[in-house]
Amino acid sequence: PRHIIIDTDPGQDDAVTILLALASPELTVDAITTVAGNVAVEQTARNACALLELAKRTDVPVYAGAERPLRKEPIYAANVHGETGMGGANLPPPVLLPQPEHAVDALIERLTAAARACSPITLVCLGPLTNIATALTRAPECLNGIEQIVAMGGAQREGGNITPTAEFNFFVDPDAADIVMKCGRPITLLPLDVTHRAIATPKRLAPIAALHTPVGEMVTRMLGAEDRFEKMKYGWEGGALHDPLTLGWLLRPEFFSGRHCNVTIECTAPLCLGQSIVDYWSVTTRTPNALWVDEIDAEAFYSFLAERLGRLK
Ligand code: BDR
Ligand code: CA
Fold this sequence. Notes:
Largest sheet: 8 strands, mixed
Shape: globular
Radius of gyration: 18 Å
Distance between the termini: 21 Å
Strand content: 15-25%
Strand order of the largest sheet: 3-2-1-4-5-6-10-7
Bound molecules: beta-D-ribofuranose, calcium ion
Number of strands: 10
Order of helices and strands: EHEHEHHEHEHHEHHHHHEEEEH
Helix content: 25-40%
Structural class: alpha/beta
């Protein structure tokens, strides 16, 4: 199996991604590192622990990481994900605790060991990129331990979801996103341009509800809630399900298409802070640094997701 570390800020859609990873035999989840994003970092770590208990996978270590972005003040998204970050999940408070080690130290340790052993790890990034950028800055030798980075972040065609131009993960910590985008390892981005084409409609969620397992019921409660943010705000048929598309792409790339291009992050201009500047038409000479994924077969993806979640009893 492919070894992955999930760096995340659960987060309703982060939660589904963690469950999808645990249900996928092609993957070994080496660790979950959490970051401040949708809610504060202690809460994102607690949520990761609660999910591991739900999936009966308390063998996976959780490390809490950055409390705040590199330079900006933190901002949260409790209005989208609920006060706990996993609105509607109603999981019991976890007994499992995060590891005492900081997520950045754990990343550095694991990635340098992976580099030494010539068995690099795939980073699946679902939140602001603060932990990853800090690890790369503090210990550049980590780079050789990274096979590839698959991240949810950015927006171009679709416009932003937190400012008119920026997507939430990149807006929260643009400086970190900039460092990661320049790191030189293979990067795949799943931006709003693709995630907004895979809305969690009642019809797509029905097979998950029909599982009648604790995981199926929890995911249905969380994603099927009548007050899901995008449903209320944009009048869509359901809420968005951004983060699981990272693993969708990793496990079923044939469901997706995109383009290799240069993606740069705006770190200073006030109106465009955190914007992903995508050279989609190669109008500059900047070298492509990412696969920008912008199309999905959403029906195929949701069938795959339901089948996988059904494996968690
Ligand atoms: C991203 O922001 C968060 O609220 C979601 O979990 C996702 O990672 C979407 O912009
Ligand atoms: Ca997230």
